[in-house]
Design goal:
heterodimer, A: alpha/beta, about 30% helix, globular, B: alpha/beta, 5-stranded parallel β-sheet, 18 helices, about 15% strand
Chain lengths: ~280, ~475
């Protein structure tokens, strides 16, 4: 069992949780993820780790409510327990040699790009960050991102805060301004990562994306998470989750993410009914 | 003379069938297919054994169970004692009685089989183990006094459970590190409920825990802790029984379309995650109406029979060779046929066709014919020119084998692997290239059977004991 130590609502559907997980906290590096299962009948879901404190033995996760499991997870409070927590999984982000980086985060992806930016900052890189959301209310971790960035650009799709537009547009403007960039780390919804990769490809700027495929065991055993990278099939759980954004088949990823849409809705509707019944 | 007459009489008693659920009924439930012997039938079947002086059956058993002894006890009506006798050599008799390929092991060497049918050793093993479990009289044997030495077992499948069972009895402190949230390995994620009820696996693991084995779940060794860190923590030896792991895909166009699973994923969702009970359980699975399983092994049979139970109207096995080459046990093929599985033999998929949403709708196949024998000794299937045709499907399960999981080798310096990524370990001792590190099961041999993994575990446990006794 894993105890939840702290829970903070970052926006209407994005939640931050600090977990008591000393063994994982000792090992976890930026870019790695965990798999959790709330209870006996629960689903195993992968979630990226945002932070870890090896001394305190704590692990921080951020997630967006998208289905039954995350909806149920969001109802848990400090002091509650999760039945299963497995990790750290996946390969850590490859950061060596990066001196000028741009960290692009969209929606809940800001939570995932944050630790990468923090690690880059720590190794002395210049970090420019571009974070965005649909609107001001959904923007998360602005202060934290400011703290680890030399320059922070904020966008909203509806123009309710920061620059009106997409993070990929802001990135294009930044590149065209002549900013020196070794590598772009882009994490967010599939269309956002696809758009960012399309922008950087034109300028030949190395771009790393983190893929949120469906997973079951997350140890390389099931192949649910398979993605096409440069025409080759890779398993996001053991070969990734980070890949070369210019080689990823984002359309395939998007279509595989829709595989259980019907069942996800059924599960969510049943859960909502049960919640209202109580 | 009298003795000979007695033998003659015994040989005339035919092998007793085990009652089974009606195929029409069972494809709508997940209950076990064979129902098991009654006490009376078990005693009658056991009485068929002529108690050979040099029992061939025992040499055919990878873990060397004293078969004549436990069968004799059943014949005498000493069912509990029979189970205890089994447990002297096997950590998982209720499992082995169900999933071992007895026809190619113990029963293959039964002298009765020369003229008649062999003694139904597997069914008797199952009977005795079930009798003990259901009686509530599970005996916890004496274990040796703690010797102060610690062994880490990586992977809670058949190999690891066997190593743990043997070493705990010898006085070692044993901890199993299991990557998933439940121990059992292929017994819980792979083999379906209708072939091996999970309550039985749980009972066998509980028994090991009662002996003192510690089980740590959600522990992916290599990521959470490396092998070197386990030694630094005070373990004196490590056994690696992590299973084959990675599923193989054929590399044909369209294989990543939605609706296409690896057998590992399909079975893990259904068995470990209980997706067949969705939405009561949260993990979903596609309930296909037209399901094709690619491959002809036991895992393919488990997958296709699962598809039927999930409500498929048409469930196909697509296999590139002919019926005689099917690697699955004859019993599994028989069960699949009884349940209405359609066998598309001498057929090979070459491409998957999808719709606008990226969902699989058909498999382009070619007909095959058998040519000259290949390196496996089986006749090589050759494509018939111009024989292309399409099978309409909405779900596909690819069951063509597995590769080695890379996590342990990737994080363990000095651990030798072969060109396919499997860990190199001595066949007789399980010794690897690293001192104190032993390995066995599918991560050494590639996909094989539960009992072979247990046999490897048994040998490794003996050599770990020898190594640590000298240390």
């Amino acid at each position: 069992m894993t105890k939840i130590l702290e829970k903070v609502d970052l926006s209407e559907n994005v939640v931050k949780m600090v977990l008591d997980a000393p063994a994982i906290a000792k090992k976890r590096k930026a870019g790695q993820f965990i798999v959790l299962k709330i209870d006996e009948k629960g689903e195993r879901i992968p979630l990226t780790t945002v932070d870890a404190d090896p001394e305190k033995g704590t692990l921080t996760i951020i997630f967006q409510v998208v289905g039954k499991t995350t909806a149920k997870l969001a109802t848990l409070k400090a002091g509650d327990e999760l039945m299963d927590l497995q990790g750290p999984m996946g390969r850590p982000t490859h950061l060596e040699g990066v001196k000028n980086a741009v960290c692009v985060g969209g929606g809940v992806g800001v939570g995932v790009v944050y630790p990468i930016g923090a690690a880059l900052k720590k190794q002395g890189a210049k970090v420019t960050s571009i974070i965005g959301a649909r609107n001001k209310e959904l923007l998360i971790l602005e202060e934290e991102m400011k703290g680890i960035s030399d320059n922070l650009i904020v966008t909203t799709d509806d123009g309710s805060y920061g620059i009106h537009g997409f993070v990929s547009d802001a990135l294009k403007t930044l590149i065209e301004s002549g900013e020196k960039i070794d590598e772009v780390f882009a994490i967010g919804p599939v269309p956002m990562m696809k758009a960012v990769a399309a922008v950087t490809k034109n300028y030949g700027i190395k771009t790393t994306v983190s893929l949120n495929s469906i997973m079951v065991d997350a140890t390389g055993m099931c192949g649910a998470c398979r993605v096409a990278v440069g025409g080759e099939t890779k398993f996001a759980c053991v070969d990734g989750p980070e890949f070369d954004g210019h080689a990823v088949d984002f359309d395939l990823l998007a279509s595989r993410l829709r595989m259980y849409m019907t069942q996800e809705k059924e599960s969510m509707d049943k859960y909502r009914c049960e919640c209202h019944g109580k | 003379m009298e003795n000979n007459e007695k033998k003659e009489k015994k040989e005339k008693v035919p092998r007793h069938k085990m009652p089974e659920q009606d195929p029409k009924v069972r494809i709508h439930n997940y209950n076990e297919v064979p129902i098991g012997y009654s006490e009376e039938t078990a005693m009658k079947e056991a009485s068929r054994c002529i108690q050979c002086k040099k029992p061939g059956c025992r040499t055919g058993c990878p873990v060397g169970v004293d078969i004549p002894a436990f069968v004799k006890l059943i014949a005498e009506g000493k069912f509990i004692e029979a189970a205890w006798k089994l447990k002297e050599d096997s950590a998982l008799p209720a499992v082995c009685g169900r999933v071992c390929p007895q026809e190619s092991q113990c029963e293959k060497f039964c002298i009765l089989g020369k003229k008649d049918e062999p003694v139904a050793i597997g069914r008797l093993e199952r009977f005795a183990a079930d009798y003990e479990r259901n009686s509530g009289q599970v005996k916890i044997p004496e274990v040796a006094a703690k010797n102060g030495k610690k062994v880490a077992v990586v992977g809670g499948g058949p190999a690891g459970l066997t190593v743990a069972g043997d070493l705990i009895k010898l006085g070692y402190e044993v901890t199993i590190y299991e990557a998933l949230h439940k121990p059992g390995g292929v017994l819980v994620y792979g083999i379906p409920e209708f072939r091996l009820p999970k309550s039985i696996v749980e009972a066998e693991i509980n028994y090991l825990e009662k002996l003192g084995v510690k089980v740590v779940c959600n522990a992916v060794i290599g990521r959470l802790e490396t092998i070197d860190e386990l030694f630094a923590e005070g373990y004196d030896a490590v056994f690696l029984g992590v299973g084959a792991g990675a599923p193989v895909f054929m590399g044909i166009p369209g294989e990543n379309l939605s609706g296409i699973y690896s057998a590992n994923e399909y079975l893990t969702r259904s068995n470990l995650m209980k997706a067949y009970l969705f939405p009561e359980y949260d993990t979903p699975i596609v309930r296909g109406k037209n399901v094709a399983v690619i491959g002809g092994g036991n895992v393919a049979m488990d997958s296709v029979r699962t598809a039927l139970r999930l409500g498929a109207d048409n469930a196909y096995i697509i296999y590139r060779r002919s019926e005689v080459e099917l690697p699955a046990r004859a019993e599994e093929v028989h069960h699949a046929k009884e349940e209405g599985v359609q066998f598309k033999l001498l057929t090979n998929p070459v491409e998957y066709i999808g719709d606008a949403n990226g969902w699989v709708t058909g498999i382009k196949c070619v007909e095959m014919e058998l040519g000259e024998p290949d390196e496996s000794g089986r006749r090589r299937p050759v494509e018939k020119k111009g024989s292309e045709f399409v099978i309409d499907v909405d779900t596909v399960v690819v069951s063509v084998g597995t590769n080695a999981n890379p996590i342990i080798p990737m994080t363990t310096p000095g651990l030798d692997t072969n060109k396919w990524g499997y860990i190199v370990a001595d066949e007789e001792t399980g010794k690897t290239s690293r001192e104190g590190v032993y390995a066995g099961g599918d991560i050494v041999t590639g996909s094989a059977t539960v009992i072979l993994a247990m046999g490897a575990g048994k040998k490794a446990a003996a050599s770990i004991h020898e190594y640590l006794s000298k240390k």
